[in-house]
Fold:
Amino acid sequence: MTRLCTVACLAPLAAILWAQQFKFNLDRLAAKASNNVDVSVSGSTLKFAARFLDNSDPDEAKVKKLIGGLDGIYVKSFEFKTEHAWTEADLESIRTQLHTPEWERMLGYKSSEDGETDEIYVRTENKKISGVAIIACEAKSVTVVNIAGVIDLDSLAELGGHFGVPKLEKTPGHKAP
Amino acid sequence: MTGLATAGQALDFDELIGAHQSMVFSLAYHFLRDRESAEEVAQEVFLSLHRNLAAIQSPQHAAFWLRKVTVQRAFDEGRRRKRRPQVALEDIAEPAAAARPGDPLLGETLRRLIATLADAPRMVMILRYQEDLDPMDIAELLEMPVATVKSHLQRSLALLRGKLERRGLGEH
Amino acid sequence: MDWLDRELGQALNRKNPSPDFAERVRWSLHVQKHQPAHGLQWWLATAAAFVSVAGAGGIGYRQHQGEVARQQVMQAFRIAGASLNHIQTQVREVRR
Structure:
């Protein structure tokens, strides 16, 4: 299978303001992955890109609103050919960085049956939210996201629910593939 | 395999893009229901075509090759994005206004209904109605038995018909 | 062919990609051809490629850079949003 590797680290060459709030340290996973997405967008590039978002497209209009309070968005996502290609040890470095006073784990979900672990952390500074970390691990995939800045999580989740498909509740007996 | 090495080869590749970009994009778009993803898939397909250009034997071969690779890449992209739940066709929410044959709203309703099908029947429907392929051609593209293709078509159409008729739409 | 066949044919008719789609494919080929290893050298090569193609009159430099930025931003938000939506769905199921 062709390995897709989208490496995008866009910013004007003159100056890069790096707002990523923790190191991903996921090179081991990258080496094992069959598909690999790596997207890093700094605050200045977000503001630049916002000018090119289409207000008449509902999704792009929503993203344009979300961008307003952000300093950067950093995403790494891996897919593997087989289950259990990743272990908890692969994520230990990230979790250690998130076990600091400024980070708080807001949500944790684990399913041994599905081989799934999901966590959401929120960073606060001066009693205000300044970042979000998402760790979403399924049997054959790992996704880590850092959003630096202030973001409306409900709007972001809504976006993920209808990119191209109507957002609908899951009915009993219909497991997501 | 060379890049844009000669004017002749560049012209052929450009002609292929011109001739088939709508087909490739539309297959991906109707399957993924996301314009951005569809353009990414379409771009990857043409880049892959460029790498394999020497193996393309004829214009007909190019069309077949492009359809096949587009289908595969659309499936891959769909799996990568499949954080959204699959739902039963019967449970899809009804739009507020009833659509009539010939109404653009009906077209959008049909596209949404098709988007809720599982991957295989969804692609079968798209290949049948976008590309006007017969079941044998679809079976060859998807590497599945003809009987399975026909079954997907029959069941999907029956579901769509039932769903629409319950809302007062029928033959005219 | 009955009414549903006709409607499906119309609903699933072919659509066109963006007007600059072919240009972007050619641009990607150009970048791939000149792409060295990662790091500063990659950046310089990409910048040089941008300038050379823009200079050839093929693509407006800033417009294209903006288009690339737009695509990457949408990709990032798509993945982040999908992950969050999935997590919320899972938690909602547990709470039922």
User: Anything to note?
Assistant: Chain B touches chain C through 47 residues (CB under 8 Å). Confidence is low (pLDDT under 50) at residues 1-11, 83-97 of chain B. The two ends of chain B are 55 Å apart (CA to CA).
